[in-house]
Amino acid sequence: MTLTQARRRIVACRRCPELRRYCAEIARARKREFAGDTYWGKPVPSTGPKDARLLIVGLAPAAHGGNRTGRMFTGDGSAAWLAPALYETGFATQPTSQRRGDGFELVDAFMTAAIRCAPPKNKPTPRQIANCAMHMRAELALLNDVRVVVGLGKIGFDIAYDRLRERGYGAGTRGRPRFAHGAEYTLHATGKTTLALIGSYHPSRQNTNTGKLTAAMLRAIFARARDLLATNRRAA
Q: Fewest CB atoms within 10 A around its CB: which of 27, 32, 138, 169?
């Protein structure tokens, strides 16, 4: 399977009919702020190049963000925080991510999520997460150059670890990695390059509006990822 095929399979996925109905209803009703927009209203594919060395794992598309624009972390409050952090650390072409075709592209970074449909109240069920796991498995099978993984929020962090564990990573880890902002783990795998797994608070309004996550804190996560990639390159 190619990356293009994997993304097409995501968009066509119907493994969770209830989520397809929910996303379609959001697209039909729309938010007053976006009443003139044509919503995507389908599963949202990953974004970023196949040879990316940084993997970013989020939770799910936002109902009026990715579910509206068709691109992850685009056109919502989380994007307004994440895009500048990525741009300032060299992982994006510009500091804004508002809509497809706006010039925002990831640089040496690949963005995916635990599930690809917007879930009600941003809370996917365990069954929905399990149904969607096949898509990240297909992506990881193609991403041979990843060296650093950033999990946004506890679910993104845990799912990233679960999928990496399936690929043999985590041999040197004592117990299951515990999520915390800035938590960093080295994951080993027999015959494979070592990976770094970093936790970050999710740039949701629940975190940014309360001051739990600041712009400086988020930027520091990706600055650390940049430093780790530079160290990895020198070691190679």
A: 32
Domain boundaries, the chain: 3-235
CATH number of 3-235: 3.40.470.10
pLDDT of 233 reads 64
| CA distances in angstroms from 228 to 183, 192, 196, 218, 234, listed in the order given | 14, 17, 8, 16, 10
Structure tokens that stand for 3 in this block: 């990356």
| Burial class of residue 183 (count of CB atoms within 10 Å of its CB; 0-12, 13-18, 19+) | middle
The predicted-structure confidence for 98-142, as pLDDT tens digits, reads as follows: 999 999 999 999 999 999 999 999 999 999 999 999 999 999 999
Residue 68's H or E segment, with its range, is helix 66-69
Nearest to 61 by CA among 40, 38, 81: 40
Q: Which pTM value belongs to this model?
A: 0.95
| Cβ atoms of residues 54 and 150 within 8 Å | yes
Find out whether 119 and 60 touch, Cβ atoms under 8 Å.
yes
Q: Which residue has the tokens 């952090």?
A: 85
Q: What gap in Å lies between CA 220 and CA 224, rounded to an integer?
A: 6
pLDDT of 8 higher than 80: yes
- pLDDT for position 175: 82
Q: Is 60 exceeded by the pLDDT of residue 235? A: no
Q: Is the dihedral of CA 54, 172, 170, 201 positive or negative?
A: negative
Yes or no: say if 91 and 222 are a contact pair by the CB < 8 Å rule. Answer: yes
